[in-house]
Write a structure and sequence with these properties.
The structure is a homodimer.
Chain A (H helix, E strand, L loop, with lengths): L7 H6 L6 H16 L6 H8 L4 H6 L3 H26 L3 H16 L6 H13 L1 H18 L5 H20 L6 H12 L1
Helix pairs in contact in A: 2-3, 2-5, 5-6, 5-8, 6-10, 7-8, 8-9, 9-10
Chain A binds a DNA duplex through helix 4.
Organism (chains A, B): Actinoplanes flavus
Protein name (chains A, B): TetR family transcriptional regulator
Keywords (chains A, B): DNA-binding, Transcription, Transcription regulation
Amino acid sequence: MSEPAPTATARRTRRHDPHRRDRLIDAALQVIAHRGVAGTTHREIARAADVPLGSMTYHFAGLDEILTEAFTRHADGIARVFDERLTAARTRDEAVEAVITLVTDDLLSPGHDLVLTVELYVAAARNPRLKAVTQAWMQRSRDALERHFDPTTAREVDALIEGLTLHSALSTDPMTPAQIRHAIERYLR
Amino acid sequence: MSEPAPTATARRTRRHDPHRRDRLIDAALQVIAHRGVAGTTHREIARAADVPLGSMTYHFAGLDEILTEAFTRHADGIARVFDERLTAARTRDEAVEAVITLVTDDLLSPGHDLVLTVELYVAAARNPRLKAVTQAWMQRSRDALERHFDPTTAREVDALIEGLTLHSALSTDPMTPAQIRHAIERYLR
DNA sequence: AATCACTATGTACGAACGTACGCATGATGT
DNA sequence: ACATCATGCGTACGTTCGTACATAGTGATT
């Protein structure tokens, strides 16, 4: 996402590091995914990015600022994929396929940390700035869906996507791609 | 849920307090709802229940134990309502109505703190005991739904319920009961 | 009434935290 | 070449936390 970090040994001697702020935001997302928002501290992020603690207060006004920027990056990334897939679809059938692909390939891919999304929801419940991030993201998803479906359907299928993703992620017995396809097609065809 | 607590002044003089453990678990749920799991500390719970700090270590082996018991109580409470509504339904149509009532009246009622459920999901991602609580709850919901619907439908509608509740709770423009009814009926009828 | 097991309480300690701040350093513009 | 200033760095302070523990009060049993 950003430029590679200087190696640990290099950092001990060299100091120049443009994009450090960017790397810190990415590091914050890693820490959130691994330890949760509760376990995300200045020190953990600094360790993950291999920068000294003092760097945190220089680049960010406080922990809130880091969290906001990190979650904004996360939401924007997912929303962009959402947009792209649905914009590429030309017909309603293609749009249905796009939704299925979104859930099975993008949202539930092993590399994608779904837990980040749930962490965002929880944090948003008590942080107005994060609530705004969440709502902007939801609005963007719905707008993308409305390229192909009427507003009511868009809203409903948006909720369905949410439920399918969440339940699949939380279950020891996750839904198969075929089951997800079945659920979405049942709703949209 | 439990017996009323002795008043603050009474506590200062008297000490006998059976059901204190129960009250502490309820207090923990209140604190989780207000401050989140991250802001839930021994001291906050003790303050909410108006007991001294030392009482926490006596009644619970650690913070994990309190959280587990609190979330177990939360999940059991919702699952019980779920069971009851679906057991009371005699026909498929009544079952559909029961599901609608569950979402609009029970899960989304102003008194019910939906944020507790999301907090549980996040905590469960990193706590095996809480993961077990979540999965037992999901299984119980699905079993209840299977009294009236085939397993595939049960699973899908369970996910739909999740998405509808979550989106309604997070949105500034929450879905109306009519919209929720529309979404569920579209799926089940 | 005496005893005892259980429950309740206040306090203390070490660890981890957010944040502030003074100093060092390297890039930049002249 | 040199001055300037944004950036990088180490450290320290005050706060809050989980937890332990010694002591004290209480209800039950005899």
